[in-house]
Design goal:
- With about 375 residues, the protein is α+β, with helices and mostly antiparallel strands.
- It has three domains: about 160 residues, no CATH class; about 70 residues, Single alpha-helices involved in coiled-coils or other helix-helix interfaces; about 130 residues, 2-Layer Sandwich (Heat Shock Protein 90).
- It is about 65% helix and about 10% strand.
- The chain contains eleven helices and five strands; from the N terminus they run αααααααααβαββαββ.
- It has a five-stranded mixed β-sheet with strand order 1-2-3-5-4.
- A hairpin with a 6-residue loop joins strand 4 and strand 5.
- Helix 2 packs across helix 4, helix 7 crosses helix 11 and helix 9 packs parallel to helix 10.
């Protein structure tokens, strides 16, 4: 009896919140009506995107409510409402998530008040179950109906609020369009950087080398000593040009990745960072299966950027790196115990990392509260 009452009490709280939300949604119906009238009159077209945003927040609150009861998340799939008023209006009207939320809203008006049944169930349950359990020593039969009612309400909400395959596909296409644009922009920026490095460094040294060799050819007969000096200078310039070329090549794909793999390359990176780095791996080693080259390069450059930021800005002499092979991909985590407060808009390279990782359908999360610590987590999908 006590267990049944505890479960019924928890279910009653869940159903009471649903009833309260439903009564609030009856007021929201007025907002919807005003929005429709104003939109049809063309004077209030701006209200439609704002109303859709409000509807998304309400549906999100219901998702969290259902998740708290069932323990299972309900994903969202919405197109971003950004851009001009015309673009936002078009997105709000065409987004399949909008119609899914409206369908749930209409159904919520019908089944949301079911929670009011808990009042008579409690009255009947206390009387009947009290006699049933107290006199006949049997298990309660009425009070367990309240949690089942909450389960039923949660199942209906879950089926209506989870995104349809069309909504998932629409959002996925939007994400791929954005990441493709980011990848093209990153590729263009990388080409410009390589061109600038070659023009300002290697090309200038090769031009100077050619001039030194030409002067040496002219002075060979008349001044052998001057010729020798010019050839020495030409050799130095050739070595400097080779060094510049190596730097350019390393920026494209570090040779150490090819030679030693990601684990070995990150060990070398940690050793040369100037920090006291603790390096951990999980289900990865230098002789094990390797991720694709593009994934290794993205993880390597992300770790290198994070260590550079830690050395420059964190104020902490220590950092920690963890590489782990996870289901369906690779995860790299870099943590420092510095002052925190990392700002992506301050030229720390975090935006470049996000763009490079997004091009591979990966994800970057950064946590850097003021006072630290700073933790960057990079997740990259791949097949091992």
């Amino acid at each position: 009896m006590r267990k049944a009452m505890r479960e019924a009490s928890r279910a009653t709280g869940q159903l009471a919140r649903s009833v309260a939300m439903t009564f609030g949604l009856y007021l929201f119906a007025t907002v919807l009506l005003i929005t429709v009238i104003a939109t049809l009159a063309l004077v209030g077209a701006w209200m439609l995107p704002e109303t859709v945003l409000l509807l998304r927040r309400i549906a999100g609150a219901k998702r969290r409510m259902v998740t708290s009861w069932t323990g299972r998340d309900i994903p969202e799939a919405y197109l971003p409402l950004t851009g001009t008023l015309r673009e936002r209006f078009r997105t709000a009207v065409r987004d399949p998530g909008t119609f899914a939320d409206l369908r749930w809203l209409g159904a919520q008006y019908l089944y949301g008040p079911l929670g009011l049944l808990t009042v008579p169930l409690w009255i009947i349950g206390i009387v009947v179950d009290g006699l049933w359990c107290g006199v006949l020593r049997r298990e309660a039969v009425v009070l367990p109906l309240i949690p089942r009612l909450a389960d039923l309400e949660a199942r209906w909400s879950n089926s209506l609020l989870k995104p349809s395959p069309k909504a998932r596909l629409t959002v996925r296409v939007q994400e791929l369009t954005q990441t493709r644009a980011g990848a093209i922009a990153a590729h263009g920026a990388e080409l410009r950087r390589i061109e600038r490095d070659l023009h300002d460094g290697t090309q200038a040294r090769l031009v100077s080398l050619s001039m030194r060799i030409g002067l040496a050819k002219r002075s060979f007969e008349n001044d052998p000593e001057a010729t020798r000096k010019m050839l020495d200078q030409a050799q130095d310039l050739a070595e400097e040009a080779l060094t510049e070329l190596r730097h350019v090549v390393r920026a494209i794909h570090p040779p150490i990745l090819t030679d030693r793999g990601l684990v070995g390359a990150v060990r070398a990176l940690a050793a040369s960072s100037g920090l006291q780095v603790t390096f951990e791996t999980q289900e990865m080693d230098e002789r094990g299966p390797r991720a694709p080259a593009a994934v290794e390069a993205a993880a390597y450059f992300a770790i290198a950027e994070a260590l550079t930021n830690a050395a420059k800005y964190s104020g902490s002499p220590r950092a920690r790196i963890r590489l782990e092979r996870v289901r369906g991909g690779l995860r790299a985590v870099v943590r420092d115990e510095g002052r925190g407060g990392a700002d992506e808009a301050a030229g720390t390279g975090l935006f470049g990392i996000r763009r490079r990782v997004a091009a591979l359908d990966g994800k970057v999360t950064v946590s850097s509260p003021v006072g630290g610590p700073t933790v960057m987590c990079v997740e990259l999908p791949c097949v091992w």
